[in-house]
TrEMBL record:
TPR repeats lie at residues 100-133. The keyword Repeat applies. SMART domains: TPR. The chain crosses the membrane at residues 7-26. Pfam families: TPR_16. InterPro entries: TPR-like_helical_dom_sf, TPR_rpt. This is Tetratricopeptide repeat protein. The lineage of its organism: Bacteria, Pseudomonadati, Pseudomonadota, Alphaproteobacteria, Rhodobacterales. Keywords: Membrane, Repeat, TPR repeat, Transmembrane, Transmembrane helix. Coiled coil: none annotated. It comes from Sediminimonas qiaohouensis.
Length: 186
């Protein structure tokens, strides 16, 4: 068990470091960068539309084949067909390793199977490629919370709220952590 804990500690530390200090490994689309900036500065009503546009951009890779794999993986996830989702998304990560959304979606599938180490690894990769990917950061925070690492989870949720100030699930999670620990300065 000690070696598993040590391995997870290293993954968590690497993930937090990447989230907090990384820059994209690949140049990002200027439109997506503009949308991220707009989202960070938006009001609650505008955030809904901007988030929708960002999600659309995440699904557009420039390759119809990779877009299809992402769509099939996402659809399989929604239907609860986790093995099929992992197969489609693994094909996407194999053929387009620079697509953050493929790594993020596959992390969701691994999380659904309670394979937290693999989920953390994929989230680390997604965030290395796109440090503004607020859903990947939220996934990291949720796993840290599940692993009973409230301080690290709180930092990750706070990052999500810096990227997307109106991400209600992140706000609720941060409030829940603060209430649980009684520490308003997590």
């Amino acid at each position: 068990m000690g070696s598993n804990t040590s391995w997870i500690n290293r993954i968590v530390a690497a993930g937090i470091t990447i989230v907090m200090f990384s820059v994209p490994a690949w140049p990002q689309d200027a439109r997506l960068q503009d949308l991220y900036r707009d989202l960070a500065d938006s009001g609650p009503k505008q955030a809904i539309g901007i988030e929708r546009e960002i999600r659309h951009e995440w699904s557009r890779t420039g390759s119809p084949a990779i877009d299809l794999l992402l769509r099939r993986g996402r659809d399989a996830l929604e239907r609860g067909e986790i093995v099929a989702a992992i197969e489609h998304l693994s094909a996407a990560t194999d053929h387009a390793p620079d697509v953050a959304q493929a790594w993020h979606l596959r992390a969701q599938a691994f999380f659904a199977q309670d394979r937290l180490g693999l989920a953390l690894s994929d989230l680390e990769r997604a965030l290395a490629l796109d440090p503004n990917h607020f859903q990947a950061a939220f996934g990291l925070a949720a796993i840290l919370e599940q692993l009973d690492r409230p301080e690290q989870a709180a930092r990750a949720y706070a990052l999500v709220l810096r990227l997307h100030p109106h991400y209600e699930k992140a706000r609720e999670a941060l409030d829940r952590l603060e209430a649980r620990t009684g520490d308003q300065t997590l």
